[in-house]
Write a structure and sequence with these properties.
This protein is of the alpha/beta class. It is about 45% helix and about 15% strand. It is built from twelve helices and twelve strands. The chain has a six-stranded parallel sheet, sandwiched between helices. β5 and β6 form a beta hairpin. It is globular, with a radius of gyration of 25 Å. The relative contact order is 0.10.
């Protein structure tokens, strides 16, 4: 792949103003393997269209060259995204629209300056490398690699649990831990499910299904079944953690926003020698009874800043599900913020008559 500098334009008789000189940039990138070019562009150039829409640049392809025009920062981001996708094709990996979206999120440092594309880490399992799809995910993956205990906080669809399971599988396969323990509090999401038939496993499996799904993405089905049978992978409700010491394990507590402070303290103090812990949750989706303090929020208030404990926070920029999910999260956040403002205004209005009465007396 070759980057071609733009052809210099003839000097204008009217000197350009410095403020306007940086408003536009055009570059051309050449891709040497013509067989990979159709895969890079996508059917009917849909990958280029996606990049244009996301970054507000103009892309055009002629032969094996792609021309990019727009503001300097966005042109650089588009070029970095195309280069990243082309290198992915050179490694034999495929490209989908979700991969294009991920490349754009990672390359657009103007919109999200948290991590340059060149510094992207990866979690390597025997089924292949799991890479980040947003700067927030990249920072989270780095934290998973260096911290013994990590709290991951953020909205649905940001990969908090998925990446934690990927790190756990990678460490198990590398022999750095002896087993994986996956846990969740058994709390219904606003519904009363009542009596569930079956044995204990059949009763708790509906709560733990997202953890099973992530496991099956990382390991072949027969390996998951074998490792579950021999105890290398354990999936259990939070209540079953009491009284245990978890040594040489990778332990993940999912949906931690539905724990009480007592449950959270009990879980965190199960940590034994050679153990890593990841606690994931979304503080906007608490299903505890009204008036019950959230154990995840309590733990963050108590432990954030303690050496050896990392906290990774995600926001709507890190949502990697359908694009509407990010819009939905943003709409709810805006509504909640507006509701908070209204409550504060009402409190001020209620306090004002009392203040006036006190001044008169």
């Amino acid at each position: 792949m070759t980057h071609l500098a733009p052809t210099p334009a003839a000097p204008s008789p009217i000197p350009a103003r410095p403020a306007q000189a940086v408003l536009h940039k055009a570059v051309t990138t050449q891709f040497d393997d013509n067989a990979l070019l159709p895969l890079l562009l996508g059917d009917h150039d849909r990958h280029l269209v996606r990049i244009e829409q996301a970054l507000g640049v103009r892309l055009s392809c002629r032969g094996n060259r792609v021309a990019i025009a727009g503001t300097p920062a966005r042109v650089d981001a588009a070029q970095a995204a195309l280069t990243h996708l082309y290198r992915r094709l050179e490694r034999g990996a495929g490209i989908s629209l979700s991969e294009v979206d991920a490349a754009v999120r990672l390359a657009d440092t103007e919109a999200d300056p948290r991590l340059p594309l060149a510094d992207v880490p990866a979690i390597r399992t025997r089924r292949g490398a799991v890479g980040p799809r947003s700067p927030g995910q990249a920072a989270y993956m780095e934290m998973l690699g260096r911290s013994d205990m990590v709290f991951a906080i953020g909205p649905a669809g940001t990969g908090k649990t998925y990446l934690a399971v990927a790190q756990a599988v990678a460490m198990l396969q590398a022999g750095r831990v002896d087993r994986i323990v996956l846990s969740r509090p058994a709390v219904e999401a606003g519904e009363r499910l009542g009596f569930l038939p079956g044995d204990l496993k059949e009763k708790v499996d509906p709560y733990l299904r997202p953890l099973y799904d992530a496991l099956h993405d990382m390991l072949p089905g027969e390996q998951v079944a074998r490792r579950l049978a021999n105890g290398e992978i354990e999936v259990a409700p939070l209540a079953f953690m009491r009284g245990r010491t978890l040594a040489h394990s990778f332990v993940i507590l999912d949906e931690a926003q539905n724990t009480t402070p007592v449950q959270m303290k009990m879980f965190l103090t199960r940590m034994g020698e050679g153990t890593r812990m990841v606690i994931t949750g979304d503080l906007s989706q608490i299903d505890l009874p009204a008036g019950q303090r959230c154990g995840l929020r309590d733990a963050l208030d108590t432990l954030e800043g303690v050496a050896g404990i990392g906290v990774s926070r995600f926001d709507r920029r890190d949502v990697v599900r359908h694009p509407l999910v990010a819009a939905i999260v943003d709409a709810y956040d805006q509504r909640d913020a507006a509701s908070g403002d209204q409550l504060r205004e009402r409190a001020r209005a209620a306090d004002q008559p009392r203040a006036d009465d006190a001044s008169r007396t």
